[in-house]
Structures are given as C-alpha cells and as structure tokens.
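Appendix B.2, paired examples.
Example (i):
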Amino acid sequence: MAIQEIKVPDIGDYTDVPIIEIHVQPGDSIQAEDPLITVESDKASMDVPAPMAGTVKEVRVKLGDSVSEGSTIMMLESAAGAGETAAEEKSAAPPSEAEKIPQPAAAPSAPSAAASTAPPTGQIADFSRVHASPSARRLARELEVDLNRVPPSGLKGRVTQEDIQSFAKGGAPAAQPAAAAPPGGGEGMDLLPWPKVDFSKFGPVETKPLSRIKKISGANLHRNWVRIPHVTNHDEADITDLEAFRVQFNKANEKAGIKVSMLAFMIKAAVASLKQFPEFNASLDGDNLIVKQYYHIGFAADTPNGLVVPVIRDADQKGVVEIAQEMGTLAKLARDGKLKPDQMQGGCFTISSLGGIGGLYFTPIINAPEVAIMGVCRSYWKQVSPDGKQSDWRFVLPLSLSWDHRVIDGAAAARFNVHFANLLADMRRIIM
C-alpha cells in the first residue's frame, strides 16, 4: 500500500475555480474515474475524476474552496502501480456504492417512490432546469430517477448524489439549507432597483430555480449586451445547390457512417470570410485591436444542462468532413457534461444555429471577447425573381450577423454578410 497525493489535473486556463460538490470523505473506497469533486467555471461545471482506485485517507479541500491545476484534493491509500491505467483499474474494480443501490423493479405491483416518478417509457424527460453536476445527472440516469422530483440539499438549490441515492431508496430527502438572497441587479451601474412584486396576489404561481447554465451564463450575457454596442444585419443565402450536394454526399457515404451537416459548411464559409475581413477576427484590448492569425470557430450546442459553445480549433486546416466529425464528438461531450474548459476557449467567431427548431431572424449576443457572431435559422423555400420577369423557387438560409460597432462599421458588416452568403451559394469560391 502507498499513500498517493491526488491533485487537480489540467482544467485549461482556469485558475481559482470554486468547488461546488465534494463526493468523497475519509474512509471511502473509490474506483478509478469515480468523481472526487465538482468545480464550476464561468461557463460550465466539471467533475474531477479519481486517477486510480484506493481508500480515501484525508480530504484536503472543503466546499467553497477555490482550486487550480496542481491543487491537492486528497490523500489516497492505493495499491495501484504507476503503470496501471485507469481503465484497467475500473474494469477490475468491484461495483461502487451507487451501483449497489437496487434499480426500481420493472412493473411492480406497488410502485416505489422513485419508480412512480420516473418518466413514462418512450418519453424524454426535460431536466434542463435542474441544478445538478454531470456526475449527479449520470447517477440519476443509471437509477432511473426523475431529477425534477428530487428535493435538492446542495448549495444554491443543487441536487447532490446523496439526494438522488436517498430518493432512489425511498428515504426522506436531506434537509434543505435556507435559500440565499438573489443578487441585486445593476451593481456598479446607475440603474433603478429591480421591482419587487408579490405575484401571488394576482393568481397562482410556481417558483422554479434557474438552471445552472442560465445562472452562469446570465451574468456574461448581461455584461456583453450592456458593454458591447450591438448591431445586427439580416440577410439570406441561397443554399439550393449546396443542400442538394450535401444530401447526395451523405447518401453516398451512409455506409461509411459519414454525415455532414450544413453547419460544417458554414464553419468553412466563416473561416474564408474572416480571412477576407480580418477585423472580424479580432478582439479589443483597451485602445488596441488584437487581430488573430488563427481561426478557431465556436458553435452553440444545445444540451440538457443548457447552452454551451464548443470550439473547432484551426478550422482553416480541416476539411468539411473532419469538421463535421469533430463537431459530433464535441456535441456529445457537451450533452454528457464532459466538455473540458479548454474545449470552449480561444474562439474567434461563433455560429449560433436555430435551424433544427425554426424561426426566421434573431439577434444573437456577441460572445466576448469576440467582435461578431453569426445566427442562422431554419432554411425555407422562397420564390424569387432576379430579373423581375421570370421567377424561380430557391432554398434560402436566413442570416443574422451581430457585430461590435466599436470595431466594425455598417458597410463592412453588410459586405461580410454578402460574402458569407455568396460562399454558401457556391462553395467553389473558397478554393479560388
């Protein structure tokens, strides 16, 4: 047996990230990849997993502590050799305590509390408003527990793994702490105070806490909207030929498992447009404009935890198929709550697509410190008459380009939109 010092691994460029959950205590037997703590950055929460199996001897952090890469989390008594991998330890390890909890029985004569509140078979439950870490959500899926019904006991209304385990066993939930007072609006700004209204005087109400992502991103969105002078240009791209090619390409490569979305083509068009208009590939630094010589493109991904923005790095050096495959990998990591901070950093330009939902135009909020963002909605068929004489039906994509007026003027924004649309109308322009 050897005592190992377990430290925080590489979590990207983040430092002093607060601990919002501690999953172990002295005396616990843990397996490799079991979550030790959950930390929360300004964009997402993430679990720090155990690098090996062993017995917890000492926990050297407490709830609310701030940690960085290299910070000591705990001391672990382990017999694992240095050459053993986490995967080898995991496969040989006995089931964890969470795995030992009995699963709700199928079709019981008297349903248990957990089973009676599980979503009906065939339906997908919406847990987007539940404040819970990735490991807690994973445990809820394993135990078939409806997170919406689990009383939270963690900080700021967070559902912990203990809450889920207690609920699955049919036990009483842990006592809830007193709710923290909501933060005041407009600190540091000369604004009127937020109105305080007793809405129950006017009719029935239900109070629901904001989701974790909304709490984290809300402050950033508010800052970006207030401090960046936004202007949005709307246009449309004729993607009739590109969509026909995309459908044909996907059909021809169906057996190979290759599927390319329109968003992958848009990322390539964004790179070409940024090269043509370098002021869009920049960031403000005081009185200086930092013009980037690299092309990292972010894309908004809708997940059960909320909206996150993974980044495709060096998109100028990748083909459309490679971009599509990387998007699929990053989107899955985002949905599973396993996206690392460095996979959401360094973006030069962001594309926010609502194409799978609907709408025509909207005003996307710029993702600081970027200076522009492209919003796209669902494509639709439109009858056009370019010469005013003969009309034709074309498949068009609505574009909404928001830009920072401190860096970009209206003429440049209009030209960027037109250039972007022309590239989608004929992708051969990119190789010219």
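Example (ii):
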Amino acid sequence: MLEVAGMTTKYGDIAAVRDVSLTVGYGELVCLVGPNGAGKTTTLNTIVGLLRPFAGTIKFDGQEITRKEPDDLLRMGIALVPERRRIFADLSVLENLLVAGSILSRSKRQERVEEMLTLFPILREKSQTSAGYLSGGQAQQLAIARALMTDPRLLLMDEPSLGLAPVMVDFVFNLLETLRSPQRGMLIVEQNARRALQVADRGYILRTGEMVDQGQGQELLTRTDLFKSYLGE
C-alpha cells in the first residue's frame, strides 16, 4: 500500500531524515519508534505532503505521490492524526468533525459523523462543547475521529498515547486493534516502543534520522540490545 524509498528530508541544510525506506501493506499495523529527535514526525509529515523530500520517492497503491499536496492525498485515502492533536479549539466537537468531512457529500458527511459519535460515545456527549474545553483523552479521541471521517485506507498516527492517563493509553491501543481492516494500512509513530511493538505486525527503529533496524513486532520486543542501544531503556 505504502512504499517509501530512499527518502531524505531537510530543514535548510540540515537533513532531519536520511535515506529512509519503509513499507506498509494492506491490513498491516506498522510502528515507527525511536528516541526524541529521531525524525519520526518528519517522516510522517513528508509522507502526507506537509514537507517536501529532498530525495527519494513515496508511492501509494503503486502511484507516486512524492510531490502531491496534502488535500490531494486526503482525497486519495491518506489521513494523519497529528502530534498533540491540533484540533480546532474554538470550534465545537461536532464542527471539528464536519470540517474534517468537508470533502464528502452532505449525506455521507452526516453518515460518517454518526459513525464517529457511535465509535466515540464521549464525543456524542460533548458534541456541542468547544474542543478547547476537552480533556487530553477526549481531545485525542476527537483527533482520531477527525482523521477517520474520510474513512482513510492509510491511517498515520503521530504519538497517539502522548500525555494520556494510563486508562486512556489502554483505550488508544485497544482502538488500534479495532481499526484493523484488510483494506486499511496503519503507520503509527510512538515513543512507547514496547507497547507499540506489542500490537504491531512490524516495526522500524529510527535514530538520528536514519533507519537502524526493522523486523516483526514480536521479534523486536525480544531484542534487549536494541532497547539499550537505540531506545534508551
């Protein structure tokens, strides 16, 4: 579904990620883990078109998307749950969802809103509340629901458990299992490496902008050398 090959992304003259390659298959949940500053967010933002790669290619369903705009990628079926939610604080929960579904027809948009309010019952309860008044866990649910409004085939999440209480961390990781589908691929950036690898089919380890290891999630979990060398555990 997704194929990133030899991707380098720079901020000015500084390469934030260098020669990164990864794949996500249909039905796969793939995690990208690494310490702070490893380039994980840069990798996701480049895939969704928020940043332009200096080198390399990105393909989705066999079609090159390296230079496409974010709104074009959204219409193709790629959605991002950004780091720290980035919801519209001055809009209500319902308005956030409606904005996220703006590329849909009116009837389809209403249908997807109802599906999201069913999947996240707290959002139905808070539907008329300004998003800025939500708790951290509620805001994360809204951020995920917003990305799901277009029923994406490729879902990217950036640190979905960041700053959440333990009960909400459990909710997020259980939700990842619920969202699994043969028609959907998921790429998750997560600093909680052990928890991410427990649910992932495969994992990639990124450090100082370079891919240093990869493998099956369960296999990487057994690599104590990897956690000590690259993840600081």
